[in-house]
Amino acid sequence: MLKRVKHWGPGVLLLAPTMILVGIFVYWLIIENFRVSLTNQHTAKPSNKYVGFENYSNLLADPNFQHSLWNLLILTIVFLGGTLIFGFLWAWILEQPAKGEGFFRSVYLFPMSISFIASGVVWRWLLSSLQTTQPGGERTTGLNRLLDSVGLGALQNDWWSDPTWGIAAIAVPAIWQLSGYVMALFLAGFRGIPDELREAARIDGCTEWKLYRHVIFPQLSPVMLSAVIIIGHMSLKLFDLIRAIVPDANTYDVQVPATLMWVKYIGSDYADAAAIGTILLVLVALVVIPYLMYTSRAEKR
Amino acid sequence: MRRRLSLLAGVATLGLTLAACGGGADNTPSDSSNAKDATGKVGVFTWWADGSEKAGLDALVKVFGTDFPNVTFDNLAVAGGAGSQAKSVLAAQLKAGNPPDSFQAHAGAELQDYIDADQLEDLSSFYKDNDLTAQFPKDLVDRLTVDGKIYSVPSNIHRANVVWANVEVLKAANVDPTKPAADLDAWFADMDKIKATGKIPLAVAGSWTQVQLFENILLSSLGTDGYNGLWDGKTDWKGADVTKAITAYEKALTYTNTDRDSLSDWAPATQLVQDGAAAYNVMGDWAEAKFAQDGDKPGVDYVYFPTPGTAGTFDFLADSFTLPKGAPNPAGAKAWLTTIGSAEGQTAFNKVKGSIPANTTAKTDDFSEYQKSAIKDFGQDKIVSSLAHGAAVPVAWLNDLSTAVSKFGGDKNVDGLQTSAAEIAAKFAK
Q1: Cross-chain residue pair B262–A43, CB shorter than 8 Å
Q2: Looking at the predicted complex, does its ipTM rise above 0.85?
Q3: Single pTM value for the model
Q4: Across the A/B interface, how many CB contacts are shorter than 8 Å?
Q5: If you classify domain B37-157+318-379 with CATH, what class do you get?
């Protein structure tokens, strides 16, 4: 008996603190959050009547919540597309034997080291919606001013103040910030492909395009999947960048579930806020869990 | 390895201790306490962390120091977000049963949440002891009274239906700054003239200032009774007069700066008027403190008047202080509330903050020209509660309506705003 304790005892002891802390501060709080989402706690007045999944069905039927989900979809598509395209492009360029690779790699990676809040404050100014042709246009700043001064004034637009596509403008700073990270992932992927494979393909008479199409791309697909998962779940959780760029949390045009959750929470609607939190958790889980299963299976192999 | 283990164990113990500290509210009744025997430290929670608000609070603390030399003031101000940051911090503290001795809240419906949650002490006997009911205007006391009980002591009164205008911009457009428009249509006609000169007719900022503009137009369009009826169910949100008001709001938005959503708070919008980029700004009278601070002269650089169509009505909001249940030092809190309610305290505070005293016996001889006019108006006008500042409706209602108004800024769907406003009212009205 004692022997067996000696066998697994130290391991358990070592893990216990983290397990207790994670248990309390992550899993217990998730359960508590879920419990609140089932109550009718819609005001500061304490009320603990269970209403089942009524909050969820009401939310899903609420046009404001549907709008926030739609925004989230646009944001995720643009954010994912942008980071993958730029990340791949930069990695591909740096992968060519050229001078100054280290320098450019750092340049592209640096934006990632800035917090969303800090870059958001700058991007608020860059994405100012005022245009030079509008009344008071002499105050125009940021990208619109830049476009005007290089003679591309016609390209000025409302950025995130556009009622339909405003949320896509929020993806611009996010792409700027995370493309470098995706580039690093792809670069590692490129480096992982042995030169022998390329040489063999070339000897077999592959054109450059065919080489990429049939040799390189298939080997990059695990990297691509990681990038999609990482960027995708960041996009679902994106809150701080929007809060930093858009002064008022209750701005309809760029409302996503995470910001709507905050608005509900500030308004003491704890049940709805908790329900949105749970929906977000499920959305993220839908992205992350299949990935975890895939990697653990791959590791076993 | 061992060191890391002990570190982990230490973190775990710390976590458990913290968790243990969270619970345990002190629920002893505090009615027996008396301001006169107050000692120790009194923690006061506000969102007055900088600018004229901080200066006002400092002035108030000075009076408090002379009134109650045995009590130390502990400033628990939380900065940022025009109070929204502070409110979430406060909500967490109250929920954990760890309230400050006194906290700031807008008088009126915003207090309702705290009252419903049974977090506030009834201050009716405090009012009686200090004879405050007679010193505060009846209109105000009525608005503070919930089911016959009063839960807070107002420190100052602001007016939300004021238009601030740049004299030079008006003159350039041939609009007489001394004769403000009498109603919305005349005002829009003036704005057309201003628009023709290439200036922004009406400056507005992000979501809450748009709600404030919406509230002003509702008040102007529906009149005092119609406006009040929106909150107690006597005015039908689906009615034709509300449609008219929303259409007027839509028209007003066409005169505003297009980058309104990117202006971070009210001050940048007021700044546009100060800079001569815009003609008008509908803003609460805390704008007066900004004009004064920047050295602008009333009548010369800027003029102010009630929002066209609302002359004779005072759209009020007030800050007030409370005594939360379970406050660690209730006697100290009562001492603080005594200073807040006193004539001297109100004079010192409001002179600096730019608002007007709630206590009618406060001395106001050396107040600014604007403040004097506001005091006069408050005495004779009809009083209505502000929507955007939590005086008219509880926070949850305001939040939902703000979302609808913000949505309207993008889609300009009059029918949509009216329908959702009616639905929201039906959801919250009792």
Answers
A1: no
A2: no
A3: 0.85
A4: 129
A5: alpha beta
